[in-house]
Amino acid sequence: MSAKNSSSTARKARIEEMRRAERSRERRNRILTIGASVVIVAGLVVGGTVLVRSQSDKSTNADSGKAADANVTGKFVMGDDGVKTWKGKLSQGHPTTSVKYPMTPPVGGDHNPVWQNCNGDVYDKAIKNENAVHSMEHGAVWVTYNSKASDADVKALAEKVKKTPYTMMSPLEAQKDPIMLSAWGVQRTVKSAADPDLDKFFAKYVQGEQTPEPGAACTNGLS
């Protein structure tokens, strides 16, 4: 078996394993939800107060309605492989207001408490950065494009994303390049949907070593 075929087989096995794990998590979550419903109702009063206080520690602007700072410091460093890695701090707070990020698309920092569904989800309209960043915290790769990307590339990208758990795709007009790939702390531009660097990025960063919360859900979030 060639090295290429071996890599493809290993990647398919990894994706299937993630699918099985996701289905198992969904079944477990349904059982826990039913069993814990009474406890949740009783705990909402106390828990809500604690949550508000903890979030205020992360974002002083949460109560004012103003955009919170992402609490990000550092800069991108370009690698020989064309992947930019963020060198510095990427915080993981959960403010409930909008968040100001120093990069577009963002690759980390404080984010909304609810993640964007990222189980091969393709969105034809822009999604909120704050929810997408939470998805990347769970190990998702975010594929974004602007109006400079061709219709053929957008269609081909969507087909690849739909087949890959822990990925999502959406338009993002403000980004610099036509097609960009982002994961927690890393980012790169690709030339087209056929660019081999796209598959390499998926293989390395979908639930990759950079993931702050590996195995966390990519379903039951915001759709």
UniProtKB/TrEMBL annotation:
Residues 1-25 are annotated as: Disordered. It comes from the Bacteria. Residues 13-25 have a biased composition (Basic and acidic residues). This is Gram-positive signal peptide protein, YSIRK family. It comes from Streptomyces graminofaciens.
